[in-house]
C-alpha cells in the first residue's frame, strides 16, 4: 500500500551521545506518540553486539520523566522491541548493504524513509556518509542524514567537509545539528521578541546598550580531552552555540516562519558581522585547585592532553554587527569550562533613561539602574526583567526588582530535551532549526582569522583555578566597551 515507514539508524550507537541523548530522545518521542506508526530503530557500530545487548544498553538510560505516567515500563518494553543492532565498520559499503537488507525486511514493501544519525568522530565521517548513502539510502522514500559538529575546525576544512558531503548528499538531505537551537528558551527567543510590543520596538542600538551571551559549566573536559584539545572552547561553544543564539537574537524580521526565510535572515546578520579581532578576545585555561580537601585537576592533568597545551577552556569576546540596527552595540560572549557554576543565559542590557529624574536616588552606581532582560536558557529556565522601583517606606530610595517568568512555576509539564525536538523535526523534514551550509561558512568566517592568530602567535591563556569565576581579563574586555558582565562573573 502507500503507507510509509521510517527507519532510524544511529551510526555510532555505543557512543556517549547515542546513549545519553539520542536513544532517550527517541524513547521520549515514542512515549509522546510523536513517532510514525511504522518505525524501526537500528544501532550501528563496530562492536560485536546482539539486539539484546543493544536493548540492554539502551534500557539503562531511558527514563520515564514525562508526567511520570504509570504505563512507562510497558512503553519501554514496546520501544525496546523496535530497537535492533547491526555491527559494521564505518567505511564498509558491504556492511551498510547488509544493514540495507535488514531494513528492507522491516519496511515490508512500504514507502521507506530513512534517517541516519551520524554520531561518530570527524575522521571517519565522510566514509560513513559515503557508505550509508551508497548502500543504505532508500530507493523509494526520503533519505536524511543528521550530522553533529565539529564541522571542520576553520573555514577551509569546513568548506572541504561540505564539498565531500555534497558528493553523496544534497543540501536538502543534510541536517546539521546545533543542539542549542533545540532548547526551549532559544526557540522562544523569536516569540519573545516578535510577539511582544513592549520588546519588539526596543530591539536595536537605540535602546540596547549591550547583549551578553554567557555559557559556563562547573566541570572540566574530563574524559573528552582528546577531542577538546584539537578544538578549544571557541570552536566548541562560541562559533556554534553562542553565535547561533546571537544570530536569532539579532536578525531582521523574517518574511515568514519558513525555514528558508529564517535562515536567510540569520545568514544576513552573520555576514554583517565584523570578524573577531585579537584584541577583542581573552582566553583562559583552568588549572588544578584544592578545595575542602578535594583536589580538582587542571586541564593539562588530563592524560589525553599534551602538557604544553595552550588550548583555551575559557574565552570572552566582543563582537560587532555593522548594520543600521546594531551599529556600535557590543555583543559580549563568554564561555568556559570548570567555572563556579553551570549556566547558559542571554542578558540584554538597556541604556540609561535619558535625564533620569531619579539618578541621585540610586547613589553613585548608575549601572545598578539599567533595565536588564535575562533569558536563562538553563538550568531553571526563566525570563526575567530587571526594573526599578521605590523601596517601600517614607523615604525615596530606589531598588531593582525582577519581573519573573519562571518556567517550572508557570508550567507543570517538563521541558523536552533539545534532541527530542530536533529529531522530530528531522523526521518531519522541518529544517528551521538546522544549520544551512552558507550559515556555517559565515560562522567560520568570523572566527577563523582570530583562531589562526591565537595559534600561530601561541598566545598564552590566562590560567584560572578550577571552580573559579574565570580570568579577570574578561572584566577588562567588558570595561573597554564601557559595560559590565551582568552575571557578576
Ligand atoms: C557540546 C559541547 O556541544 O555542548 C560540550 O561539545 C558541552 O563541550 C555541551 O558540554 C553543552 O551542552 P548542554 O546541552 O549540556 O548545555
UniProtKB/TrEMBL annotation:
Reactions that this protein is recorded to catalyse: D-glucose 6-phosphate + NADP(+) = 6-phospho-D-glucono-1,5-lactone + NADPH + H(+)
Pathway assigned to this chain's UniProt record: Carbohydrate degradation; pentose phosphate pathway; D-ribulose 5-phosphate from D-glucose 6-phosphate (oxidative stage): step 1/3
Residue ranges annotated for the Glucose-6-phosphate dehydrogenase NAD-binding domain, each copy included: 10-188
GO terms (BP aspect): glucose metabolic process; pentose-phosphate shunt, oxidative branch
Protein EC: 1.1.1.49
Keyword presence, Lipoprotein: no
Entry's Gene Ontology molecular function annotations: glucose-6-phosphate dehydrogenase activity; NADP binding
UniProt family annotation: Belongs to the glucose-6-phosphate dehydrogenase family.
Job of this protein: Catalyzes the rate-limiting step of the oxidative pentose-phosphate pathway, which represents a route for the dissimilation of carbohydrates besides glycolysis.
UniProt name for this protein: Glucose-6-phosphate 1-dehydrogenase
Full protein segment contained here: 114 to 602 of 605
